[in-house]
Request: fold
Amino acid sequence: MTDHEYDVVVIGGGPAGENAAGYAVQAGLSTALVEDELIGGECSYWACIPSKALLRTPQAVADARRLPGVTADFDPGAVLERRTSFVSNWDDSGQVDWAEGAGVSVLRGRGRLTGERTVQVTGADDAPVTVTARRAVVLATGSVPLTPPVPGIDSVSVWGSREATSAKEIPRRLGVLGGGVVGCEMALAFARLGSAVTLIHRGPRVLPRAEPVASERVADGLRGAGVDVRLDTGLDAVEPVDGDGAARLTLGGGTIEVDRLLVATGRRPGTDGLGLDSVGVTTTGRGAVPVDDTGLVEGGGDWLYAVGDVNGRTPMTHQGKYQARIAAHAIAARAAGRPLDTAPWGEDAATADHLAVPQVVFTDPEAAWVGRTAEAARAAGVAVRVVEMDIAVAGSGLTADGWSGRVVAVVDTDREVLVGVTFVGPGVAELLHAATIAVVGEVPLHRLWHAVPAFPTISEVWLRLLEAYRQE
Reply:
C-alpha cells in the first residue's frame, strides 16, 4: 500500500462497517474499508451466521418430532459441515469481491487514528501507511469479549463465542458461564449436538433484560433439552484437569468437571488501540465511543463517526447496520451542504436505538421482542397497561401438537399505541417484524383493529390481543 486519500475511511469491516462503506459509495463518496481480519466481521464468521447454522438443523428435527407419525434425526457432523459452508470455511474472498465490486477500496491492516481525518493502517508487513479522509472517518470496530475475574480462569484454555461457533468437534461435557443470549443459544446448540451441558448464571433468571415470562420459558426449554441450568450460582474458581482445556469448576458449594468452558459473560466496545486520544475523544466507563443520533462522535468534531457495537448503544448486527445507513446519509448530506433531518424518526436520526430495538433469541422456545418491557416503560414514566396472554389460535394448534406460546403487549395508555411487544414460543421470530412496524409507526390500536390477520396463521394472536385490550 502507498499513502492514499479518500472522501470516507471506515475502520472495521464487519456488517456495520460494510454498510457504512457501501452507502457512502452509493452517495458518490470515494471510500476505503480498513480491516485486519475478515471482511464481514464477527457476525459473518463467528457469531450470528454460524451460531444459527448450528441451531437450525436440530431445531428442524425437534419441530418435526412434534407432529404425529414423524420420525427424524440428524448427523452432528453434517451440522458442523453446513456451518462451515455458511462461513465459507472462514475465507472472506467473496465479501472482498462484493466490496470491491461495489466500488469500495479494501485496505488490509489495523487502522488507528493519528490525527484529524488521518488514519494509519499497519498491514502484515508492519509497514504503516497513512490514509487521509476528506470528509469523514467512521469507526466500526465492533466489540471484544469480557472475561470475568474468576480465580484460575486464566489457567485453562477457555472458549469464547468464536471458539464455540467454529468448533470442529463436540465436547463430551461443556460448561457455559453466562445466561445471556450467547450462553442460552450455545447451551441449546451443544446439548442437541450431544454435549452434556451445564449453564451457570449468577442472576435469578436467564435473559435478564427480557420480560420475565420469556426468561422462564427459555430456561424451561433449556432444561427440556437436557441442559443443567444453575441459576443464582457464581463460578468461584477454575482449575485445569489436563492440558487440553478440561477444567474443574467450583460453584455453589460443589465442583463439576467439564471438557470445555465457554465464557459468555458479555462484550465491551473494541476501542483499544484506536488512537482516540490523538483526536481528544474520551470513551465511557465501558470503553464506548459516545455518539449523537447521526452517529457523530461527541467531542470528535464534524468528521468522526462511530457505528455498531463500538458506540455502545445497541450491540446487535441489525442495529449497527441501521446506524451505518443513518451515518452514511448524514456524511453525504454534510458533504453536499444539505440540511439534516434529525427530528425523531427523521432521515438522519437513529431514533429506533432508543425506542424500537428488535431482538430474537433462537432457543426453543424462541424469544422475540421489540421496544420496551413493561418494567422499562414504567421506569421511563410511561403510563402503561400490559396485556399478557397465551398464544392459542388455530394456526398455533395446526403448527404442532402441544404448541405453547405467550405474548406480552405493553400499551401506552395516554396515546393508545404499543411501546413494546414480546413473544415466546416455537418459531415466533417471524411474528416480530409486524410488532416492530406497529411500534415504530406508533400505529393507534383502533387502526390495528383493521389489520386483519390471515386465517389460520399464528398471526391471529394480534386479533386476540386487541380483543383482550378492548374487553378489560
Q: What stands out?
A: The chain has three domains: 4-40+92-144+268-352, 153-266, 365-471. The chain has a mean pLDDT of 96. The domain at 365-471 is CATH 3.30.390.30 (Enolase-like; domain 1). The chain is about 30% helix and 25% strand.
